[in-house]
Amino acid sequence: AFAGGATGTLLGWDGTSWTVIATGFTDRINGIWSSASGQTLIVCGGDETAGTKLTNGVISKSTDGGATWTTVLSNVPALLAMWGDGEHDIWCVGYAGNAVNINRGGTTTSYTVPNTNTILRGVWASTSRTDRFSWGRGNDVWAVGHDTVVGETKIMRWEGTQWYSYDGLANQSPNAPYVVFVLHRSPWWFALAVLLGCIISSI
After folding, report:
1. Alpha-carbon span 190 to 33, nearest angstrom
2. pTM of the model
3. Chain-centroid distance, C-alpha 33
4. Is 14 within 8 Å of 3 (Cβ atoms)?
5. 114: which residues sit within 8 A by CB, 6+ positions away?
6. pLDDT of 85-128, one tens digit each?
């Protein structure tokens, strides 16, 4: 198990105790993906409160359990959440509507949402490739957050060609949703977005 936090803090659990893993990062680590062995690690980070929030987003990768790191992506808006199903199947979202995918070729592609006033704090992607209502990982991605100008909750869905926005609750800032999970109950999708103290849903 791994845990990340402020000023680039990364901890690894070996079943007995936590060990500090040096990263060299200065901003917060907000998302971690690990292989089953713990040797391959991918982290995303950034600080939305810093003056450099439009450029301090970073994705880094280690293939030796955190001993050394390679920068996958940098100089982008702060990345605040991650979803992953493999080292070549990662989604990160964050400040200014920033949404990034690490695809099966190991390259990164940006899918920024149309409204860059949006801060995205949670992301979920489908792992199904057989369900006729889900077109695969890269074509069925949900992200949640809020519009920093009007304070409206945002539930967004990427379906392979564009983002769709679903109506959320008005005037929720700063109590924006931080987590999203999608349940499929044919023929409907239920997107559950967790706010501080309540749950909202969209079909």
Report:
1. 25
2. 0.81
3. 11
4. no
5. 97, 163, 165
6. 888 889 999 999 999 988 877 788 888 888 888 889 889 887 65
